[in-house]
Specification:
It contains nine helices and seven strands. By secondary structure, it is mainly alpha-helical. The chain has two domains: 182 residues, no CATH class; 54 residues, no CATH class. Helix 2 runs antiparallel to helix 3, helix 3 crosses helix 4 and helix 4 runs antiparallel to helix 5.
């Protein structure tokens, strides 16, 4: 009897852990499809750019970090004002490139502010404010209003960014404040630079060992490619093909005859650094 109870507990732990780690499916929120293709109006992200330039530590190991404990008061205050400014933007009146930069900057700015407000923590998953018994982390909590509509980080990523743009490279510009995540860029995204930074961020992540590595002949990828497999093609060969498009010549050659992925890994440790 005791053995059966232990087995049941172990199964529940494995089952619920897999549920909590599974990414939500993308599901279009049609409310956010509206845009103005002729608009030439530009959203001002300069204050976010200043925050990033002062606080993102570009690591020699290829991982960008923030010294969350020592973000200056003035920068914290300006971050709050920047997010409030984004809340006053009527985003449906802008062209697509401005919208893309807006949503990505908003997601990342909200994430950084969440970590600062809840620091010290060892992982963003400790900011356990999402509703639901199996929910984990901050992603399901309604944090912000755009055009009067309450939104969560999950809404921004899975109901707006992924289904509207249908571009897997978006994952390389969404930062979840973790070592395993693609880097928080040290400059703000804008309608003018977002296309170029999408390409650069894809190359940056793909060619770092936290994204792609080998254990002997076994190909190990970031869990990003497992969670969002449908965005990267849906099967091992399609994911490998996607990666090959951004791989350096050495990695691309090694991937040329690779047909399967052996395992996936991810490090949820907070991307904290020190000045």
């Amino acid at each position: 009897m005791a053995r059966h109870i232990i087995l049941l507990i172990c199964w529940n732990v494995i089952f619920f852990t897999s549920i909590s780690e599974a990414a939500p499916k993308k599901q279009l929120w049609e409310r956010w499809l509206e845009y103005s293709p002729q608009s030439q109006t530009i959203i001002d992200h300069q204050s976010w750019n200043t925050f990033l330039s002062r606080n993102v530590l570009v690591g020699r190991d290829g991982i960008n970090r923030i010294d969350y404990a020592n973000v200056p008061y003035a920068d914290r205050k300006n971050l709050k004002y920047y997010i409030e400014y984004l809340g006053a933007v009527t985003i449906s009146r802008y062209r697509r490139s401005e919208q893309l930069a807006y949503w990505l900057n908003l997601y990342n700015a909200l994430t950084v502010r969440l970590v600062i407000k809840n620091y010290p923590i060892q992982s963003i998953k400790e900011v356990d404010i999402s509703p639901g018994f199996f929910a984990q982390g901050p992603w399901g909590k309604k944090l912000f209003k755009v055009e009067g509509v309450p939104l969560s980080l999950n809404d921004i990523e899975h109901r707006i960014l992924r289904p509207i743009w249908q571009d897997p490279r978006i994952h390389y510009l969404i930062n979840c404040a973790s070592i395993g995540c693609p880097n928080l860029q040290p400059i703000a995204l804008t309608g003018r630079n977002v296309s170029a930074i999408l390409k650069a961020a894809a190359r940056e992540f793909v060619n770092h060992p936290r994204a792609v590595s080998y254990d002997g002949g076994r190909l190990i990828l970031s869990k990003l490619y497992q969670w969002y497999a449908e965005d990267f093609g849906g099967d091992d060969e399609s994911i490998i093909f996607h990666i090959s498009q951004f791989a350096n010549s050495r990695l691309r050659e090694r991937l040329k005859h690779q047909k399967s992925i052996a395992d996936f890994e991810y490090d949820w440790t907070l991307n904290k650094g020190q000045l």
